[in-house]
Amino acid sequence: MDLNDAFYFVQVVEKGGFSAAARALNIPKSRLSRRVRQLEDDLGVRLLQRTSRIVTTTEIGEEYFRHAQDALARFDIAETAVRRKTNTIEGTVVVSCSVGMAQFGLDQILPRFLQDNRSVKVVQRASNQMEDLIKGGIDVAIRGHMDTLPDSSLIQVRLARVEWHLFCSPEYHETLDQSGDPGALADRQALVLGRPAATHQWLLTDGDGQTASVPCRVRFASDDMSTLKNGAALSLGLAALPSYVCRPEVAAGTLVRALPGWTAGCPQISLLMPSRRGIPPALEAFLDFLKQELPAILAGDTVATSE
Fold first, then answer.
1. Of 29, 125, 214, 218, whose CB is crowded by the most CB atoms within 10 A?
2. 3-state secondary structure of 121
3. CATH 3.40.190.10 intervals, the chain
4. CATH of 164-263, one of 3.30.360.10, 1.25.40.10, 1.10.10.10, 3.40.190.290
5. CA distance 18 to 94
6. Where does CATH 1.10.10.10 sit in the chain?
């Protein structure tokens, strides 16, 4: 029996079908199907039930999958140990992240990782849509969330909390009420990330845990944080954005933080990975790098105002 056939079978089950596994492995679907059938012939049992739309494991196929998955994970662990001893790390890492994280967080550190690990290839998928990690062949996703993510099958590693603030131009800031009362910002023009609600509101929290819901008028909405920053710098309104995203503009004086005693959200940034025991050396090196470098990029406050 060829152990590669067991690997292909595990990939089909983990990815939820032959098509998804073939895309993740970058091999023809026909080849994948042929290898799994060869495995079934070698074992003398049917491991998968195939229909025109879905593929499911048989009872004995599910048992074989668990054992094969565990065995392959142990091979990964063995390979990692050898790679560490010989200092040779190679392979491909597929990372998923939001557009904002790609533009304002990973852009500063990914090139350094590639310089330090010249035999590792990184494939970055930047999207504001959550993608199925297993079916998409994604090794690790970097995502922000307010609460514990519901998918308990994923490994979740918390990196940092990121404060969101209200930002505007110094000129626009001069037109605002300076009392520190969130209600004074009601019905101000807003530059909004994503799709705005019919009646949009800023949800604000102060240092004592008090909250305020402030209605605003959406002037512009976009999935691109860079465009929102530019609009705020041109005095088009207030934009709620992560503090680290606006740090250069605040330092340069083109943006200031409005209502400095309040935040506009404080989501958790986490690493998400498929739940499996073996981590390839390239992915392990990438995860260690992210844990060490990314929190410093995301942390820290910005200058409060231009006062």
1. 214
2. strand
3. 89-162+267-298
4. 3.40.190.290
5. 20
6. 3-85
Position 69, amino acid: Q
Distance in angstroms (rounded) separating the CA atoms of residues 260 and 234: 20
DSSP characters over 245-265: GSHHHHHHTS-EEESTTEES-
CA distance 214 to 198: 14
Cβ neighbours of residue 285 under 8 Å, at least 6 residues apart? 89, 117, 120
Q: Give alpha helix (H) positions in the chain.
A: 3-15, 18-25, 29-43, 59-86, 99-104, 110-116, 170-173, 225-233, 247-252, 281-298
CATH number of 3-85: 1.10.10.10
* Sequence-ordered list of residues with C-beta below 8 angstroms from that of 98, at least 6 positions apart, any chain: 126, 127, 128, 142, 143, 144
Could you tell me if 29 and 55 are in contact, meaning their C-beta atoms sit under 8 angstroms apart?
A: no
DSSP secondary structure string for all residues of 175-236: TS--S--GGGGTT-EEEEESPPPSS-EEEEEETTS-EEEEE-EEEEEES-HHHHHHHHHTTS
- Return per-residue pLDDT of the chain as tens, 307 residues: 678 889 899 888 888 888 888 888 888 989 999 999 999 999 999 999 887 677 889 999 999 988 888 888 777 767 666 665 555 688 999 999 999 999 999 998 999 999 989 899 999 999 988 888 888 889 999 998 876 665 566 788 888 889 999 999 999 999 999 889 999 999 999 999 988 888 899 999 998 889 999 999 999 999 999 999 999 999 999 999 999 999 999 999 999 999 998 999 998 899 998 865 567 889 989 999 999 999 988 875 544 433 3
156, β-bridge pairs: 272
Tell me the CATH architecture of domain 89-162+267-298.
3-Layer(aba) Sandwich (3.40)
* Both structure tokens of 200: 């949009």
